[in-house]
Every structure is written in structure tokens, then in C-alpha cells.
Task: inverse folding
């Protein structure tokens, strides 16, 4: 009996010793993609990846990991440790007294493997890419299981809060926020379309989530840990021509270790970082967007109208009104003006964009069927033709000779078709360039419906085409016109003498 008790006691003490001397999670393998990065612990270089980190070699209370590699952005993370404050072994065979081994401040690593992706250093660009972002699309279905939080399935939903994945409809705002940290200046497409902006975006971004998974444990955001993966397809379009100019897919993984951010925020940060690190993306987007700023089609030679000076202002403005027209379409109306006696008309492209029926209404009330001869989408210009002869047309001036403060007049159908060929007066306020496109800034009244109408000087010669205005609280008198010399060049028109 005595021998048996000694054997049992020895076995029990051996078991407790095994628990007390355990080295589980005392080390972790640090990996990087690409490998070979310098590993710094609390600012001191200790090796290169892959690197085995041992707690015994680094007795500090806090461990800050930094990975550095030439040509890549440095990465800094805290190595997470947790306290194992005690071990309890119940020796039921020895007097029924608990055998407690209390090991204070016994730190162990939370993870046995730490893997990080390094991103290439960002070049410094002189100009950001002005972009608009469409709502995020997805191939996932409502109710599709994305993974688990603890033991509960997390299902995809376009309309409900998905906990660590938040609201699907908010994803475009996250993309905008993170993109603007790099070489993009972005805004939501729906915001851009609700307002009148002088600047035209260079690209329209259409993001689509193709795959999304999570695996998390914990009860509150700051105590949730786990991983997520996400594949996002990024399509880039010219916002004017609607031509796709680039497409790529990013596949990323994010690790949540008690950070304040939600998992979806960590995933979007990784996805954006991966996107902007794509080799040649900036050059591709800027080059392809600029390539559309070219003259439209083959050269078209038109008969130049003869210029006859008016006897007085009454005759001058009478002729200007007769040479201006209202352009009606299924979606509304705009303005335009004759540039030849045989019925060629200039207007804005956005006035007739996508329209199958175009009606040109003259001051006298005649309605003529209009056809589109050519257009330059990037510069918002269109050349129309009606079957007519002997019409009153406007003479074209030289917009390059305009001076600041010079008086100008705008003619068009502003706000209502009942206000057709209204005349407003102002001055040249400035000369501006937005995204490589020149504009005449003026305080002359430009209202919805004025688009495509002429801006004329005191001699009655056309110097610009009304195209847009800034609108908003406390904004008045900031309109923009396309210089007529640039308009003729971008439509590839020449005139016979």
C-alpha cells in the first residue's frame, strides 16, 4: 500500500511539473511577403524574415515589431502577449487537497505565427487623380454564409448590419476615405451627380466584391480576434465616354487582434493598399484619360459666315437672338446657335447625349429635326445639322483675344422654354484650367437650359459656349464657358474663306 501511494504521488507531481514548465506559445515565427525583411524589436535589428521570436530573448513588457525592406513601406505592429496567471492540478488521491501552482506574470504569445504583407513604397505624384466611386457591387447572394463569429454563422445581407462587416451600403464611403490617403482625390458618384461641379472626373471606379470570408471569436469589438479575406474587382471607366480603361482584382487578408477598427475596415485598408500599389496604375489611368482629349473625327470644312457689323445695338441683339436656338430632346432642353447659313449648329454634348430625337426650335417658332454630325465627349461639345438654308448665323470671334473685365453677353433658353433666347450681361472674370481643359469664367447669368448657348463680345462675335456654373449656398455669378477657338479645334472644324 505504501509503495502504491508513493508511485501515485510521483506521477501527480510529474503531471504538475509538466504544466508548470510548459513552453507553449513562448515563441512565434515571423514571416513577410516578400521574405528577407529586416526584423526590428523595440527599434533594434534582430534578424530577417522568416525569424523566430522567443519571449525569453526579449524580456521587455512591450514588444513593438517593425519590418523594413528597401523599396517597401515599413510596417509596425505590436506583438500581442497574454498573462497566464495560474495553473491548478487537483490531486484527488492525496488527502483531497488541491495542488495549486501559481505562476505570476507568466507571459505567453497569442499567436504562434505572425505573417505580414509588405507594400511597395509610393512614388510622389504632383497631381492626384480626380475620381468618382460607384456604389459597391457584389456577386454574393443575401443569406450566403460568410463564416462564423464564435459558433454563429454570419450571413451576407445588403440591407442589414453584419456586425464586424457593418453595413454593405457604407462600403463606398470607406473606399473614398482610404483612397484619398494616396494619389486619388475621390468623391461618391451620387454626390457628384447631385451637384454642379466645374471639374470633370478623370475616372469612374466601379468596385465589386467577389468573395468575402470571416472567422472570428470574442464578445465585444475590442476583444474580438480572427481573420477575414476579401477579393475585390476594380473596374475603371472614363466617366464621359463610358469606355473601360483598366480592370484588376485585389485579394487580401486582414487579421483582427483587439483593434478598435471593425474587420471590414481592416479589409478595405488592405484592399486599397494593394490596389494603389499596382505597378503602373497611376500612369495607365492618367494616360488613358488624357488620350480622349483629342479633336473629334476627321476634319470637316464648313463655309465661313460673312460678318456684317450691325448699325446699332438693337440690330446687333436682334441678329444674335435670331441666330440662337432651343434644342429639345426627350429629357429636356438646352441651347445652341447656328454657325453656317446651311444649318450647322453648335451645342453641348450633354444636351443631346443618348437622345434619339432632337428638335431645333428657332426664335420664330419653326421646329426642325436635328441630327448629330459629330461630338467631343471629353470637351462636352456637339455639332448638329438641320435641313435649312439662308438662316441667320453667328460670326465666330477669337477667344484668345479676350481680356479680363471685358463685357460679354450670354444668350439661351434659361430655366424655361418660355424664356427662350434670353440675353444676360456680365464680364470676363477669369481664365481657368480644370483637368487640362480651358474655360472662360464669367459672372453672366447661366441657368439650366443655357447649356450650349453662345457667349458673345461687344461686337456680337461668339467667344465661348456656355457649359456649366457653380451652384450652392452663398455661390453666385460663377459660370464657365468653353472658348470658341478651343471648341472649333476639338470638333476638328475648319472654315472656308
Result:
Amino acid at each position: 500500500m505504501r509503495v502504491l501511494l508513493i508511485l501515485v504521488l510521483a506521477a501527480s507531481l510529474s503531471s504538475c511539473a509538466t504544466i508548470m514548465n510548459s513552453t507553449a506559445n513562448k515563441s512565434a515565427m515571423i514571416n513577410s511577403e516578400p521574405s528577407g525583411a529586416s526584423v526590428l524589436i523595440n527599434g533594434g535589428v534582430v534578424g530577417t524574415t522568416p525569424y523566430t521570436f522567443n519571449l525569453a530573448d526579449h524580456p521587455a513588457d512591450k514588444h513593438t515589431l517593425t519590418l523594413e525592406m528597401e523599396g517597401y513601406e515599413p510596417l509596425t505592429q505590436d506583438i500581442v502577449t497574454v498573462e497566464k496567471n495560474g495553473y491548478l492540478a487537483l490531486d484527488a488521491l492525496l488527502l483531497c487537497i488541491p495542488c495549486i501552482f501559481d505562476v505570476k506574470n507568466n507571459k505567453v504569445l497569442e499567436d504562434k505565427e505572425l505573417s505580414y504583407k509588405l507594400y511597395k513604397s509610393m512614388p510622389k505624384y504632383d497631381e492626384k487623380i480626380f475620381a468618382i466611386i460607384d456604389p459597391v457591387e457584389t456577386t454574393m447572394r443575401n443569406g450566403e454564409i460568410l463564416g462564423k463569429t464564435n459558433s454563429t454563422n454570419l450571413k451576407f445581407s445588403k440591407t442589414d448590419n453584419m456586425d464586424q462587416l457593418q453595413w454593405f451600403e457604407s462600403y463606398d464611403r470607406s473606399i473614398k476615405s482610404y483612397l484619398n490617403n494616396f494619389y486619388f482625390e475621390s468623391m461618391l458618384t451620387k454626390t457628384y451627380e447631385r451637384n454642379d461641379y466645374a471639374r470633370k472626373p478623370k475616372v469612374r471606379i466601379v468596385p465589386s466584391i467577389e468573395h468575402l470570408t470571416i472567422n472570428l471569436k470574442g464578445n465585444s469589438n475590442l476583444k474580438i480576434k480572427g481573420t477575414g479575406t476579401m477579393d475585390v474587382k476594380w473596374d475603371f471607366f472614363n466617366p464621359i465616354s463610358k469606355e473601360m480603361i483598366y480592370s484588376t482584382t485585389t485579394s487580401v487578408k486582414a487579421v483582427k487582434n483587439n483593434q478598435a477598427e471593425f474587420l471590414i475596415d481592416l479589409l478595405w485598408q488592405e484592399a486599397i493598399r494593394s490596389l494603389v500599389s499596382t505597378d503602373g496604375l497611376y500612369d495607365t489611368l492618367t494616360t488613358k484619360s488624357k488620350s480622349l482629349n483629342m479633336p473629334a473625327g476627321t476634319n470637316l470644312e464648313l463655309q465661313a459666315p460673312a460678318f456684317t457689323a450691325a448699325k446699332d445695338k438693337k440690330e446687333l441683339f436682334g441678329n444674335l437672338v435670331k441666330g440662337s436656338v432651343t434644342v429639345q430632346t426627350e429629357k429636356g432642353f438646352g441651347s445652341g446657335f447656328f454657325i453656317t447659313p446651311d444649318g450647322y449648329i453648335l451645342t453641348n454634348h450633354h444636351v443631346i447625349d443618348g437622345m434619339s430625337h432632337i428638335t431645333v426650335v428657332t426664335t420664330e417658332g419653326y421646329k426642325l429635326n436635328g441630327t448629330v454630325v459629330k461630338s467631343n465627349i471629353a470637351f462636352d461639345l456637339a455639332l448638329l445639322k438641320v435641313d435649312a438654308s439662308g438662316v441667320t448665323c453667328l460670326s465666330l470671334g477669337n477667344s484668345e483675344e479676350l481680356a479680363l473685365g471685358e463685357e460679354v453677353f450670354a444668350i439661351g433658353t434659361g430655366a424655361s422654354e418660355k424664356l427662350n433666347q434670353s440675353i444676360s450681361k456680365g464680364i470676363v472674370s477669369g481664365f481657368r484650367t480644370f483637368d487640362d481643359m480651358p474655360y472662360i469664367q464669367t459672372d453672366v447669368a447661366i441657368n439650366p437650359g443655357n447649356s450650349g448657348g453662345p457667349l458673345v463680345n461687344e461686337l456680337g462675335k461668339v467667344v465661348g459656349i456656355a457649359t456649366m456654373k457653380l451652384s450652392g449656398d452663398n455661390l453666385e455669378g460663377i459660370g464657365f464657358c468653353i472658348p470658341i477657338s478651343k471648341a472649333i479645334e476639338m470638333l476638328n472644324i475648319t472654315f472656308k474663306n
